[in-house]
């Protein structure tokens, strides 16, 4: 086993080679580079590697053994000791000694005094608005937070067949590449799907694929928004869009909402983000008259509208809603979609249908981040999955399943928690938006009690530009009927706890 040590750095400090090797090994153990249980190379191998005699390396191992850093096993070799730094006090000792080692190599001075490296204005804005932490959930918690979708209904056999087809005979297709905008076959399949299901006159040459829709939104924001320029965002709205604008140095203009969605105004801006088919997070649908007003605004101000159609594939009732892109005659709308909700959460693939004038700059920007698209095998497999009808069948099946779960949740919320929440109407999407009917203080107490009872839901404050009325978002696609019932039962117990405490 070969290991890499900071030998040359310690050789510049210590006169003798065996001392340099000793300190390099000790530092690697203290820093955790060589974790407990790691077998060290034989004395012969290490002697050859660092141009030392076997006797010198044996002396180093004996010094480490005497200090408790390693242990020997007869007939097997020398191993890093597992228990030297296993306790809490040992961990502190490890960190403190590692700092001493680092300072020694650096030529003196405390490691804690190291100056922070300067960041660009973009980097400072990024740190000022940290990314929401990944939420790891306990198994015994019934969580109404949006979650990775369960896979028991996923058509594995069809997907495996598509993956096998995409690999080609003897893996020939795996050796080929494609342009930054993504696989042409998949872009054609997406265009055909959108023409039928969304009424969008899409062409493959106007579609660019991204590693998730959020990457597309960030790149488009960088292309279209100068620092200091204004962008209109919905309030409440997706916090990722807000972050993209702010980190790019843009100014937020708040787009107010009512029960019909975004209220059009004569904004002094050249970029608007909107979720018209199903407003995020409230779920309301933007009326046709307002859609036309937004298109007129964009034409008048020479502005661009980025339409995020994040989960409108799942509709339970009513006629399909025409996207803004389908109504756009002035080529002012960018339509952004994603496969993360319709396939599985780890399938990070998004796309944008672009006006012709934005195709070339978007491809150039995408090439800067990814000269060669990632997940090419998955792209080609998805094209096969769509072209053979498997994707359409999968959508119809999941629409039935998710629709039933959504109806169960709405029924239970409206009957058992009607004193607490008012549900906004919705016939699509994978979560329910509910306005809180009591005081803000009671909402805070209720959410804390819910966590204690073993359930959780999303506080809509996350999506608000400025604090508004208390509200909750209940995701349901990942929960079956039994789990939904148990979650509501726990919410009822949480409210009883709040009442008993007042």
Automatic annotation (TrEMBL):
Its cofactor is pyridoxal 5'-phosphate. SMART domains: HTH_GNTR (SM00345). Gene3D superfamilies: Type I PLP-dependent aspartate aminotransferase-like (Major domain), Winged helix-like DNA-binding domain superfamily/Winged helix DNA-binding domain. One of its GO terms (molecular function) is transaminase activity. PROSITE patterns: HTH_GNTR (PS50949). It holds the Pfam family Aminotran_1_2. The keyword DNA-binding applies. Residues 15-83 form the HTH gntR-type domain. The keyword Transcription regulation applies. Keywords: Aminotransferase, DNA-binding, Pyridoxal phosphate, Transcription, Transcription regulation, Transferase. It comes from the Bacteria. InterPro entries: Aminotransferase_I/II_large (IPR004839), HTH_trans_reg/aminotransferase (IPR051446), PyrdxlP-dep_Trfase (IPR015424), PyrdxlP-dep_Trfase_major (IPR015421), Tscrpt_reg_HTH_GntR (IPR000524), WH-like_DNA-bd_sf (IPR036388), WH_DNA-bd_sf (IPR036390). In the C-terminal section; belongs to the class-I pyridoxal-phosphate-dependent aminotransferase family. This is GntR family transcriptional regulator. It comes from Paenibacillus etheri.
């Amino acid at each position: 086993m070969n290991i890499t040590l900071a030998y040359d750095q310690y050789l510049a400090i210590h006169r003798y080679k065996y001392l340099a090797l000793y300190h390099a090994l000790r530092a690697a153990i203290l820093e955790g580079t060589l974790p407990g249980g790691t077998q060290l190379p034989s004395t012969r191998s290490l002697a050859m590697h660092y141009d030392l005699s076997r006797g010198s390396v044996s002396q180093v191992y004996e010094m480490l053994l005497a200090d408790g850093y390693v242990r020997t096993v007869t007939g097997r070799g020398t191993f890093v000791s597992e228990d030297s730094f296993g306790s809490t006090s040992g961990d502190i000792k490890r960190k403190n000694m590692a700092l001493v080692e680092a300072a020694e190599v650096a030529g003196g001075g405390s490691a804690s005094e190291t100056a922070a490296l300067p960041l660009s204005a973009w980097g400072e804005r990024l740190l000022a608005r940290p990314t929401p932490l990944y939420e790891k959930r306990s198994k015994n918690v019934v969580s109404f937070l949006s979650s990775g979708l369960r896979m028991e209904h996923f058509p594995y056999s069809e997907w495996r067949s598509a993956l096998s087809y995409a690999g080609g005979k003897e893996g020939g297709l795996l050796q080929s590449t494609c342009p930054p905008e993504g696989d042409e076959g998949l872009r054609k399949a997406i265009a055909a799907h959108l023409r039928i299901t969304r009424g969008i006159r899409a062409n493959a040459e106007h579609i660019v694929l991204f590693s998730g829709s959020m990457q597309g939104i960030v790149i488009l924001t960088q292309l279209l928004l100068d620092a200091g320029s204004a962008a209109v965002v919905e309030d409440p709205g997706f916090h990722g869009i807000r972050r993209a604008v702010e980190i790019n140095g843009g100014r937020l203009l708040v787009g107010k909402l009512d029960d019909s969605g975004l209220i059009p105004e004569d904004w002094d801006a050249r970029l608007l983000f909107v979720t018209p088919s199903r407003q995020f997070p409230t779920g309301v649908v933007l009326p046709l008259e307002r859609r036309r007003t937004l298109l007129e605004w964009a034409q008048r101000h020479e502005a661009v509208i980025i339409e995020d159609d994040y989960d409108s594939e799942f509709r339970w009732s009513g006629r399909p809603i025409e996207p803004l892109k389908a109504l756009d005659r002035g080529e002012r709308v960018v339509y952004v979609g994603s496969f993360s909700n319709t396939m599985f959460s780890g399938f990070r693939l998004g796309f944008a249908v672009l006006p012709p004038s934005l195709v070339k700059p978007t491809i150039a920007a995408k090439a800067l981040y990814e000269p060669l698209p990632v997940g090419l095998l998955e792209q080609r497999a998805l094209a096969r999955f769509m072209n053979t009808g498997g994707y359409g069948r999968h959508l119809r099946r999941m629409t039935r399943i998710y629709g039933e779960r959504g109806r169960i949740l709405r029924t239970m919320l409206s009957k058992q928690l009607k004193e607490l929440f008012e549900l906004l109407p919705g016939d699509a999407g994978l979560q329910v938006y509910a306005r809180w009917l009591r005081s803000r203080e009671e909402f805070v107490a209720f959410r804390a009690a819910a966590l204690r009872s073993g359930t959780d839901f999303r506080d809509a404050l996350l999506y608000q530009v400025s604090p508004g009325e208390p509200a909750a978002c209940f995701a349901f696609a990942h929960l079956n009927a039994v789990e939904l019932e148990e979650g509501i039962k726990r919410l009822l117990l949480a409210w009883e706890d709040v009442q008993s405490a007042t």
